[in-house]
Amino acid sequence: MKWIYDLSLNELKNEIAALGLRDFISDQVFQWIYQKNVQNIKLWSNISKYNRELFLKQYSTLLNRLIDKIEDKLGTKKFLIELEDKNRIESVLIKEKNHYTFCISSQVGCALNCAFCATGKMGFIRNLSSGEILSQILILQKEIYDYNGKINIVFMGMGEPLLNYKNLKKALSIITSEKGIDFSPKNITVSTAGILNYIKQIEKDFPNIKISLSLNAPDNQIREQLMPVSKKENINNILDYFRNYKRKYKITFEYVLIKGINDSIQDAKKISQLLRRILCKINLIPYNENTNIEFKTPSKKNIEAFKEYLCLKGYTVVLRWSKGKDIKSACGQLATQIKEN
Ligand code: SF4
Questions:
Q1: CATH 3.20.20.70 given to domain 65-327
Q2: In which residue ranges of the chain is CATH 1.10.150.530 found?
Q3: Which residues line ligand 1 (CB under 6 A)?
Q4: How far apart are CA 204 and CA 169, in angstroms?
Q5: What does the alpha-carbon distance between residue 252 and residue 215 come to, in Å, rounded to a whole number?
Q6: In the chain, where does the domain assigned CATH 3.20.20.70 lie?
Q7: Which residue, 18, 125, 152, 213, could crosslink 108 as a Cys pair with Cβ 3.0–4.6 Å?
């Protein structure tokens, strides 16, 4: 039996044609699963009983299994989701002042092994399929089913999204399609450790989706220690590309401030030099401590001084105290038991 969420609209149209059904039924099916978020085929009232039964024999429409949900005091919720092969991933629903943010995973674990990140410590297990990416969004939407306001989607959960580009692209096409979930690409951010070829590709494929780069160091040398990917992907090449490619939005640089590693005023000076002539904003994220990683959160005084220096140099700087720290759902804290034994 095929899992419907792994099919693009064109793939579904081909399957529908092979079943001898009329083309418009695939649009109706997309409406039920993505726009109405209804998985029970029996409720698909505008499709005939005969066609529904035919469908039921061919396709599974169930979402991945939600096995746990924890909420912190501010309303941030972490969802533990089990995949078909029993691997587990986490997604986070963040309640902001005027909107919600969905933080979505793209891989089980991550190969990039950034020194400050709990997901990196899991190692790489596998890429998520496009359906497994979409399923997280539908599960989070169910949680706020009566909410009609703005939702941002950020690919900042487990994994490096651009190293799963084929499936990410397929999922993004459904997320942004009028016949699919129909989210504005302007409300979607893909966060990357810096995979230059795929940054170029996604900017061509989805020019309105925003890119956010995890910078985290004032030069490539310190970055190599924090983010081994910098040995292959030199930060200066990525920044040159950002400087020279014309886009409609500001690049966001995420900078996790770690005590004694990258939080000095000297570091802020280097950052100010490094990012010159790039239309950008900088998100400063005080490190969220993890029990099995030795790094520490800097003092508030150092954090404020770092921020002030960059502001004085003319940068737009946002200090982001991560939400969901007490439920281990803040930046760099997502890591789950891999398989139920
Ligand atoms: S920070 Fe992102 S890229 Fe680095 S190990 Fe964690 S999940 Fe992977």
A1: yes
A2: 2-60
A3: 110, 112-114, 117, 119-120, 158-160, 193, 214, 332
A4: 11
A5: 9
A6: 65-327
A7: 125
pLDDT tens per residue, range 248-303? 899 999 999 999 999 999 999 999 999 999 999 999 999 988 767 889 999 999 99
What is the position in ligand 1's atom list of the atom closest to the CA of 192?
A: 3
**Which residue carries 């009609």 as its tokens?**
148
Is the model's pTM score more than 0.85?
A: yes
The structural architecture, per CATH, of the domain 2-60 is Orthogonal Bundle (1.10)
Q: Which atom of ligand 1 is nearest to the CA of 193?
A: 3
Residue 124, SS3 per DSSP: strand
Closest C-alpha among 165, 170, 175, 184 to residue 138: 175
